[in-house]
Design goal:
about 325 residues, mainly alpha, two-stranded antiparallel ribbon, globular
Length: about 325
């Protein structure tokens, strides 16, 4: 009798529509509709392409944050890490250009990935081996990374070599069949992230570690290893975002990536990933990143709310999202 019940319940759950999972996409559609009603220019192809392209950086980093948060961790250093990786990448590129010319661009991409991996590994090892709360660890590294980029730029700007600017511009401003390269790169990152989280043993171990640490350890999951890898994935995602971001402004500054940690965490929470860990939603995370950018764009195009209050609106959204999670959990 018990066995029969166990076989029936999953079938029912599989056919049931999870409205909570659809909520980010419904919210995105509603906000897009509102933007179209507020300003006709919002639905122009140029504006929509700009919105999607600008959201790519936060979306890429947020995919990595989905892994970290699903494991029961948190990373507040992603904005500062982004600035630090960007600075190191530009310095390496400028150093390599006299000897390698335009080949310095793909070479510095490798440098960015290595630096991103090292930054993520640093966060992960301190959290797991040091057994310090992720909030404290990444709050500390947030200050460290931001101080390093300020030191490297001497408080100013660190531009890429002029000879590389034209060759590098297509990475952000170019497109394939009308689709901007940052959007295509985001799609690849999302597909890889979804496969890793949903279709591999690592993904199952990650969510089990975030759901219940003791049960996961009893089941033979190396919780420390799983969480450390999640922070490394976060570092890789930051590096990929940096590679796409540099040609947009052509320089690194102490304010690069400022408050991106707020946008990233908000996108992840809006998307349905539990902040306490145990559940991750890659697709919802991307929808959350788009929601934030669409709201910012609507605020710029309309006169209802000042565009200088974008951060305040984002902060309000994450509070509302957490209240919605709590209400759903209580039910």
């Amino acid at each position: 009798m018990i066995a029969a019940t166990a076989t029936i319940v999953p079938a029912e759950e599989g056919t049931r529509i999870r409205w909570a999972d659809l909520a980010p996409f419904i919210a995105l559609a509603a906000i897009v509709l509102f933007g179209a009603l507020v300003n006709d220019n919002f639905v122009s192809s140029a504006n929509l392409i700009n919105v999607v392209t600008r959201s790519a950086f936060v979306a890429i980093i947020a995919v990595g944050a989905t892994f970290v948060i699903s494991s029961g961790g948190l990373d507040l250093s992603v904005g500062s890490m982004m600035a630090f990786v960007t600075g190191i990448m530009i310095m390496a590129m400028n150093h390599l250009v006299p000897s390698f010319g335009d080949w310095a661009i793909p070479m510095r991409a490798g440098v960015a990935l290595v630096v991103g991996v090292m930054c993520g590994l640093l966060n992960g090892l301190i959290v797991t081996i040091g057994r310090i709360e992720p909030f404290i660890v990444t709050l500390g590294t947030m200050g460290i990374f931001r101080a390093f980029i300020t030191f490297l730029t001497d408080g100013g700007s660190l531009p890429i070599d002029r000879s590389l600017r034209e060759a590098y511009r297509p990475v952000y401003f170019g497109s394939l069949f009308g689709i901007p390269y940052p959007v295509l790169i985001t799609f690849v990152v999302v597909m890889l992230g979804a496969f890793l989280l949903y279709k591999t043993k690592y993904g199952r171990r990650l969510t089990s570690a975030g759901s219940n640490v003791e049960v996961a350890r009893f089941a033979g999951v190396n919780v420390s290893g799983v969480r450390t890898v999640a922070y490394v994935i976060q570092g890789v995602c930051v590096a990929v975002a940096a590679i796409c971001y540099v040609p947009r402004l052509g320089a690194a500054t102490p304010t690069t990536g400022q408050l991106w940690e707020l946008q990233v965490i908000t996108a992840v929470v809006i998307g349905g990933t539990l902040l306490r860990g145990g559940r991750g939603r890659i697709g919802g995370t991307v929808a959350g990143a788009l929601i934030l950018e669409v709201i910012a764009n609507v605020m710029v195009l309309s006169d209802m709310v000042s565009e200088y209050l974008v951060a305040a609106v984002q902060g309000t959204i994450i509070i509302i999202a957490m209240l919605a999670h709590r209400f759903t959990a209580n039910r």
